[in-house]
Each structure stands twice: as C-alpha cells, then as structure tokens.
C-alpha cells in the first residue's frame, strides 16, 4: 500500500512539473482549487503589451467610431478599464470589430482576449461553444424598430411584416419562436452588419429592424429621419448582454468578473472618477478602502497590484457614470430600468467586496 501511494505521489509530481514547463505563465503562487494568478491570459497580454478586445462593428451606445476614427461606447470603456487594470494604461487596447457571425470564432481562435460586444449570455454559448460567460453588463430584450407608416403599436401586430435581422445571432430564432407561439407570420431579411440592415430598412426593403433594446436606441439615432420610426412597446426575449472569455483560464474569468463587480461597488459606495484619488486616502468605509487598494491586498490576491480598480474607475466609470455617458438623458435617453442597482429596483447586484 505504501509503495502504491509513493508511486501515485510521484506521478502527480511529474505531471505538475511537466505542466509548469509547458505553461510558464502559471508560475505565480497557486490558490484554492488549483487556480493560479494572474494566469496565462494575463501573462500573454503583458508580454504582448496590449489587450486585444472584441467589440461591435458599429452600434451607437455600445461601440462606434467618431470622425477621427476613435472608438467610443459602453463596451469600449469596459475594454479600456480592463487595460488600465491589467496593463496600467487604458490606451493599450487593440480594437477588433467583429460581426455577429464571426465573434465567437474570433474569441475561440485566440485572436482576442475578451469579447465585450453586446452579446447575449446563453446556455448554448456556455456549454457547446466552451465559453466563460463572465458577467451581465447590460440587461436588455429583443425589440423592434418600425416605420410609423406601418401603423402598428405592438409587436403582436407585426403579422405579415418583413424585418431586417443580423445573421449569426439568436434574433432570427427568437422571431420564429415568437411567431409560432402567437400564430403570426414574420418574414426576415438577413445582413452581416447593423449599418447594412439599417440602410436596407431605410430603403424600404423591410418594414423594420430588430435587435436588443439598447442597440435599437442607438441605431434609431443614426436614421435620416428618426421621428419617422418608433420602437414598439415590449420585447420578445431576454437578452442579458455581457462579457465572454475563453474557457480554461479561471484566473482571467475572476479578474473580469471582479472588475465588473468593482464598477458596481464603486457606484454603490459613491466612488467616482472625480473623487477616487481623494477617497483612497480619506475614506473610512472598508468597502471603499478594499476597492481602491488602501487595505486588504485584494489586487495582489488576483495577481495584480492593489490599485488595479482605482485605475479602472479613473477611466471614467463607476457603472452609473458609464451608463449615463452612453445611454442617459444627454445621450440616447434610455431609462436604466433593469440596469439600475439592486438598491434602486434594478438587477445590477455585485457580490460583496470582502
């Protein structure tokens, strides 16, 4: 029995040695359940000197370029916050615009480190595509933007309509499920990119456009005559949008999750871009002190430095500031609704920073 035990222990030791040699990025100290920080993804990002972030090809609110070619948007600032946290510089991002059809393949292939592209977290994407669905950054649902001339006010009145749809998403399946459940017939016209679908809609090739409610507000703002179009009341699906990463690196998954949780915690505790530096030294709130790196070594426990969240917040976000910048009254005027904090009737609820 002792001889067998020694052989088993020797085998485990050999396996660990081989693994360490094959994956030098796993050198830092190991933690519970074999998770090692910061992990191979962060090590690769640091070696490369840039975060490769998958975003949309262009949807106002989430990700779009200005006249100078600079990217702006809700998802874009999440990427910048990650770069600030991991690399110390929010500008060290390689932007990879991806279509709905290609986005997960680009992530699986390793071309990008993280996908933050108004993409829904679903069973199939988690189980069959082998992705880590890290956090819901934006709660939405599939809605419809239609021409007022169509004379409908509710989704159930779309019988016989033709809708422009982005291919490679769950949108077409949702429409089919809705039509079957309600005994209606809704035709679809498929496109690779939102701007192509919108152009076809304005040209009269279809009666409307469907996407998640956050994106609809953004796309309506780009129309030649926005007042001619209306977003119908209601939604036909749940679309929890958020962060996707490749499976196999639990350290990276935890860093991404706790960055999102940190932005929510910053809003809960009143930490903003403007006051973060001052609160780092003056706050007596233990949650604020842990968040900003004053005590607890929370960054070091993730294989980062203790000011990682301070830098992320100073990109311009707590979560509320970020939402207001791109979807608030001075932007797309989209009510926060489910994206409000749990203390204000919404679903955004971070695990405690302790």
What would the keywords be for this entry?
18% strand, alpha/beta, 5-stranded mixed β-sheet, 354 residues, 12 strands, disordered N terminus
Textual characterization of the structure:
The chain is an alpha/beta fold. The protein has 13 helices and twelve strands. It has helices at residues 2-22, 40-48, 74-87, 103-108, 123-127, 171-182, 194-202, 213-220, 250-269, 276-282, 286-292, 308-313, 319-327; strands spanning 51-56, 64-65, 71-72, 93-98, 114-120, 131-140, 142-147, 162-166, 187-191, 208-212, 229-231, 239-246. Strand 2 and strand 3 form a beta hairpin. The chain starts with a helix and ends in a 27-residue tail after the last helix. 45% of the residues are buried.
The backbone outline, from C-alpha atoms, is globular
Low-confidence stretches: 1-30
Assign a percent range to the helix content: 25-40%
In total, the number of strands is 12
- Largest sheet geometry: 5 strands, mixed
Distance between the termini: 44 Å
Structural class: alpha/beta
Overall average pLDDT: 89
> What is the overall number of helices?
13
Question: Beta fraction of the residues?
Answer: 15-25%
Sequence of strands across the biggest β-sheet: 4-1-5-12-6
Q: What string, H for helix and E for strand, traces the elements in order? A: HHEEEHEHEHEEEHEHEHEEHHHHH
What is the radius of gyration?
Answer: 23 Å
């Amino acid at each position: 029995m002792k001889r067998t035990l020694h052989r088993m222990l020797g085998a485990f030791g050999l396996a660990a040695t081989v693994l360490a040699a094959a994956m030098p990025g796993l050198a830092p100290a190991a933690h519970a359940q074999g998770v090692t920080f910061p992990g191979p993804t962060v090590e690769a990002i640091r070696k490369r000197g840039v975060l490769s972030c998958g975003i949309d090809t262009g949807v106002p609110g989430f990700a779009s370029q200005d006249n100078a070619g600079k990217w702006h948007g809700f998802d874009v600032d999440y990427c910048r916050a990650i770069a600030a946290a991991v690399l110390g510089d929010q500008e060290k991002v390689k932007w990879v615009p991806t279509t709905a059809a290609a986005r997960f393949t680009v992530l699986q292939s390793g071309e990008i480190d993280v996908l933050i592209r108004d993409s829904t977290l679903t069973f199939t994407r988690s189980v069959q595509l082998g992705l880590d669905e890290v956090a819901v950054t934006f709660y939405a649902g599939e809605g419809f933007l239609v021409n007022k001339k169509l004379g409908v006010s509710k989704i159930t009145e779309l019988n016989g309509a033709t809708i422009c749809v982005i291919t490679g998403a769950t949108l077409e399946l949702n429409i089919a499920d809705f039509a079957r459940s309600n005994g209606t017939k809704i035709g679809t016209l498929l496109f690779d990119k939102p701007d192509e679908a919108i152009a076809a809609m304005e040209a009269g090739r279809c009666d409307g456009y469907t996407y998640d409610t956050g994106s609809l507000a953004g796309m309506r703002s780009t129309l030649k005559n926005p007042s001619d179009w209306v977003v119908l009341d209601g939604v036909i699906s749940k679309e929890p949008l958020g962060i996707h990463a490749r499976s196999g690196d639990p350290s990276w998954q935890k860093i991404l999750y706790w960055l999102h949780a940190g932005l929510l915690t910053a809003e809960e505790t009143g930490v903003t871009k403007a006051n973060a530096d001052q609160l780092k030294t003056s706050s007596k709130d233990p949650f604020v002190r842990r968040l900003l790196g004053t005590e607890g070594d929370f960054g070091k426990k993730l294989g980062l430095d203790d000011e990682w969240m301070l830098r992320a917040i100073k990109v311009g976000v707590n979560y509320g500031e970020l939402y207001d910048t791109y979807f608030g009254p001075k932007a797309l005027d989209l009510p926060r609704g489910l994206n409000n904090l749990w203390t204000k009737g919404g679903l955004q609820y971070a695990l405690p920073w302790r």
